[in-house]
Design goal:
Layout (H helix, E strand, L loop, with lengths): L1 E4 L15 H18 L2 E6 L15 E4 L2 E4 L13 H24 L4 E6 L5 H5 L1 H10 L2 E2 L4 E4 L4 E4 L19 H21 L24 H11 L3 H21 L9 H15 L3 H9 L1 H13 L6 H10 L6 E4 L5 E8 L2 E6 L3 E7 L2 E14 L7 E10 L12 H8 L5 H18 L3 E5 L34 E5 L8 E7 L5 H14 L3 E5 L6 H9 L2 E4 L1 H5 L4 H12 L2
Parallel strand pairs: 1-2, 2-5, 5-6, 8-9, 9-11, 17-18, 18-19
Antiparallel strand pairs: 1-13, 3-4, 7-8, 10-11, 12-13, 13-14, 15-16, 16-17
Helix pairs in contact: 2-4, 5-7, 6-7, 7-8, 8-9, 8-10, 9-10, 12-13
Amino acid sequence: MIIITSDMHLADQTLAPRISRKALDRFVEIVREEARKNGPTEVVFLGDIFDVLRSRRWLAEDWHLNGKWEPVHVRPWSSIDQEPLTLVLRSILHDIKICYGGFFRDLKNCGDVKLTWVPGNHDRLVGCTRLGRRWIEDLGLDYREDLEVVRPNHRVLAKHGHVHDALNSWKGDPKVSPFGDYVMVEVVDQFQFEAMKIRNVTDADDSEISFLAAIEHVHPRMSVPVWVWRQTRVLKDPTLTGLIREAWKNSATAAKLSFPALGGTVGWPVRYFFAMLLSAASRGNDMLAVKWLCGLPFLLFSLAEKWLDTSSDLTRYALKDACLSDREIRSVIYGHTHKAAKGIPIGAGKFYYNTAWWERSWKKDGSNRQPITEAFTLLLVAGPESKPVYHREGIQAPDEWEPPYKEEITPGEAVTKSLEADNPWERNELVSRGVLSMFRKAPATENMRRPTQSENIQTEKVIKIEIGPVSMRAQDAPPGGFELIVDHHMGRENRPTTSGVQFAGHVDEEYVNFMNRVTTAAGTENCFVFTPSRISPELEQKAAEKGVYVFDEQALEALHTPGDFQRSIEERLRG
């Protein structure tokens, strides 16, 4: 028995919610039942199972290189198997495994079950990097380097299908980032992140803008500008409409900066017309944007996309793939298009199937929009004389926002876990999770927020790092400053106090002086710096005299409850 599914798009939850547990559990039940009835069973995950493009971490400004934190512009088209791309990819895969590792373990425990994974365009980097291939092995999946699965005993050939899509595959070379990567990161991800910055929130699940995650379901991707424009017409809230317009303007402006990096990975018609769309949107002239989006240029652009986006009709390639195989193939199975195909005759006694996708949408529930998993699709192939059976399993269950960076963990536990981390980014993020958890629970904490532009300072030396819920772009020439500002009553005489918060991989005297300048510029009374490294008592004393209170590895190890945390801060602030 072979069970084939595709396009689950499992991401790290920095921009989109996780798939419903009900859907995952139901899939495991189906596999277990088929393995019980039919014996040895192979589950083929046919591409885009993991979505490493759908992450805010590509927009982070700093990564740990050469022993220090420094600003780096890193995107999916950066150098393969080299820092900083491997650092970003490692952090994304780390959280995906936390979210979904149990799902794959459950499948392996269903009996005589083999798991096979074929890369798609959204998980291209998993298959073409050493880090990604090791990660796949750790999950218990076999990797198909030739991008296809051929099972002669079942007369089946299966591949994701993106190799036939000029926008999402560059001449079939998985190591070259296609145009689709640019659209996902610089347009889709960036738009959502700009909305978060305008809204002044640190998480994509904010009730007012969480529905913007639905942008990932827009197909074809080149229709994203039209989807954004339609939201401004449908929404009745003028404040929210203004936010969307401003976020789109900002993201379009930023996307223009990276446009030259595409090189020759896409034809000039798409490059030209997409650049026109970005120019119109980045000017902020709504009428001009509408003119470009709905007028003759967009019509021409759509025609160019239809000409290049060969994925819309893969039947013509299915027969070719079947005939090129040196085995007798009757069923050709693709994913990628998100459009089901249930055995379309393609000639010579052969048939084309498509596994569609794990259907997700946003349903209106009163004044809110609720993300749900509607259904998933799979194909069951029993044997050489059996045609694949198309099965769509209805789910209709809510998705959850449970990003790993919100995991409840104490600073003491974070330090212990950080000893097992294999990179500075992971150690720093663990500490940040523990500290943020304590701030949220401390009785004297009144409010936590991101700093405004006026509370930051411009600097050539960028200190900010991504801590999970906070990140910004490198080429925005970002200000140096705090990750968070906290209003609390932990100072002298329990009076209201405003403090800046920063996380640092390394603290030295130069850093302390810089944070002292940041504190003055922001107008806060002091600041807290949390680091998984150790500092000397002399440096800690000098920092405290300047209003910079450093909690190093030793101090964090002693913090296990909100009470411990609050008392430690009070002791430092009250001398």
